[in-house]
Write a structure and sequence with these properties.
The complex is a heterodimer. Chain A is of the alpha+beta class. Chain A has eight helices and five strands. Chain A folds into two domains: 101 residues, Cyclin A, domain 1; 82 residues, SH3 type barrels (Roll), CATH 2.30.30.50. Helix content of chain A is 31%, strand content 16%. The model of chain A has no long low-confidence stretch (mean pLDDT 95). By secondary structure, chain B is mainly alpha-helical. The chains are: A alpha+beta, B mainly alpha.
Chain lengths: 223, 213
């Protein structure tokens, strides 16, 4: 989907205005800390994956996505997942307390003692596929122009552009189907694009190179 | 007109969200605790980990070691995940690491235009600007303009390579080691390495020394 989260190349957003590195706190409000931790802790319940989590944040009105601060979007995404996966009801969220008749959850919540181990373990996404890679290093490829309705990791600005395969990363879980809860592997490639191929002559500041990681279904060979 | 000529401030302040959010998040937390889906102690431990334990000092150790040990650097550039793991930095959002080396010819810059992908085990959580719409929009269309906002001016012959983190590969920039640091220890070098230089928006300089950009 092409919505407000797909920001590459958008103009008119004003300056970046970075805070000085030395004085920037990790979190800017107490609620941000809690929102961050709630999202991770609920993720560890194992009821959804990272792609579903991203998709839940993306499925908002574009004006809301842009207007919200970062962790406000996390709040929106987590509530949506909790409802969609049946962990809480909308009524419970609105009243901020469990239904009187609610059964206790059968899921085991993350406990403090397991936090270090579960973070250190991470969640690798390599996934073997029984096909050979469709492209080789050096191949010229064109990014598909499709704008699929669901979750995808093809940024809008790169659709239809021609680049060159620079590296094969092996096969990784394919996000477009993973966001629907189906884990399938696809070959993943690092593709290089010249700024001219992407922006024509309009990029300010002269030539540069863009590197994007693209799954095989995103690409067509250019002969 | 390039879009950073205008100097109007953000019309949405990311640093002072409404106290309404404080209430909304409190309500959500108390519901989830009551339903037995989260525990307060685990939330506290998660926050403590990313506030105090996992941060850019980890990445600085990786860079300082690469600057000091040619064998480690070679390993880091060919298998970053394993080389970084050998220093004890592993796990969430660093499962598939790639280190990209700045040279006198190439300067690397990392962004995630679609969300906020960032190598947590070596850099911690991303700064606000990295997650902001203007950075995500412009890093891939005007990287020199972005660098200028950070006060970074590269020689015009240096080719910029922008890494848009569209998959689960996570990128760490290996900055150029500044001249005049040949006799420095690994610890001293690590002190010099900034988070921003490992994202690629800045270069590393010796305080008061010559700027190598």
């Amino acid at each position: 989907m092409r919505a407000a989260h797909d920001l590459g190349g958008l103009q008119g957003l004003g300056p970046i205005a970075p805070e000085p590195e030395k004085s920037e706190p990790v979190f800017h409000a107490e609620w941000e800390k809690r929102m961050f931790a709630l999202t991770l802790a609920c993720g560890f319940l194992g009821q959804w994956n990272l792609d579903e989590s991203r998709h839940a944040r993306e499925r908002q009105r574009s004006e809301d996505y842009l207007k919200n601060s970062y962790y406000e979007n996390w709040w929106v995404g987590l509530r949506r997942l909790l409802i969609e996966k049946g962990l809480v009801s909308e009524r419970e969220l609105n009243h901020a307390r469990p239904e009187a008749h609610a059964e206790p959850s059968a899921l085991s919540p993350l406990v403090a003692e397991r936090v270090a181990a579960i973070l250190a373990k991470g969640g690798p996404v390599t996934m073997p596929v029984d096909r050979l890679p469709g492209f080789a290093v050096g191949d010229r490829v064109r990014v598909k122009s499709d704008a699929p309705a669901g979750h995808t990791r093809i940024p809008g600005y790169i659709r239809g552009r021609i680049g060159k395969v620079v590296e094969h990363h092996g096969s990784h879980v394919f996000p477009d189907t993973s966001a629907k809860g189906q884990r399938t592997g696809e070959h993943l490639f690092s593709v290089a694009f010249s700024s001219e191929a992407v922006w024509g002559g309009s990029a300010s500041g002269g030539h540069f190179v863009l590197r994007l990681d693209m799954w095989e279904p995103y690409l067509d060979r250019v002969l | 007109m390039s879009d950073h000529d205008d100097d109007h401030p953000h019309d949405h302040d990311h640093t002072h969200p409404p106290s309404e959010m404080e209430l909304k998040v409190k309500a959500l937390e108390s519901l989830l605790v009551e339903k037995g889906l989260v525990t307060t102690a685990a939330l506290d431990a998660l926050i403590d980990t990313y506030e105090h334990e996992i941060g850019p000092r980890n990445g600085a150790r990786v860079v300082a070691k690469a600057w000091s040990d040619a064998g480690f650097k070679q390993w880091l550039l060919s298998d970053a995940t394993a080389a970084i793991a050998s220093l004890g930095f592993t796990g969430r959002q660093g499962e598939h690491m790639k280190v990209v080396e700045n040279t006198t010819e190439v300067h690397n810059l990392v962004v995630c235009t679609l969300c906020s992908c960032y190598p947590w085990p070596v850099l911690g959580l991303p700064p606000v600007w990295y997650k902001s719409a203007p950075y995500r929009a412009r890093a891939v269309s005007d990287p020199r303009g972005v660098l200028a906002e950070f006060g970074t001016a590269l020689d015009k012959d240096v080719e910029i390579q922008v890494w848009d983190s569209t998959a689960e590969m996570r990128y760490l920039v290996l900055p150029l080691r500044p001249p005049g640091t040949e006799s420095w220890s690994e610890d001293e070098l690590a002190e010099l390495v900034t988070r921003n230089s490992m994202i690629g928006v800045e270069t590393v300089a010796v305080p008061g020394g010559e700027d190598i950009a």
